[in-house]
Write the structure tokens for this entry.
Amino acid sequence: MKSNFKVSSPTSSPRSMVSDVEVIVFDLGGVLLDWDPREVYRKFTDDERKIQSFLAEVAVSSWNQRMDAGETFSSAIEDRIQSYPEWKDWIQAWHREWPSMLKGVKVDVLQVFRKLIGLRESGQLKGIYALSNWSSETFPIAMSRFPFLDEFDGKLISGYERLVKPQPEFYQRLCERYALQPEQCLFIDDLSSNIEVARELGFHTHWFRDAEMLIQDLRRLGLYTE
């Protein structure tokens, strides 16, 4: 598994040597699982501009992150309705219809995950972990629908930990809990803000866009073969 190549992909860590990667750390939503709230609101309207306006102005990421960080849906939703009463039914649907937002597993990325599981079983990887922003109220839904989530060596879910990416403490807690060294880990996430903090903390990184680009980086690491 050791090699002397350099990483040239723009999605990778800027380090020149990557032969010390022994652990993979996955984000979940947006990487392995497809989550899209637009699926719900298309039941309400066929006006894509209205949906986009709701997501950009009302159901903003900072509000959703409050639930990822441990605030209850009931509290966050009631607070948002106070600010945007005209969107009451749409805001309430954020929890009521949440299972429909979780569209399913990304099959091509799951195949990559399976390859990495095989490397772990053969001793070429020390472990595969998840570090994910996800509410503790809805993560059990994902666990019940997607058995592969049990195959991680460990998972840190923000809603249980009361920390969220890109807070550095969340990454540090992962390392402390599972005795990981950042320089031995490849961190995979679809948000550049999360990638930037991981890189600052010493992780190798892959800014996820699609399965093929991920495979290309894993090949450079000697961690993916046909």
In short: Residues 1-18 have pLDDT under 50 and may be disordered. Residues 36-102 form one domain. The first helix runs from residue 38 to 41.
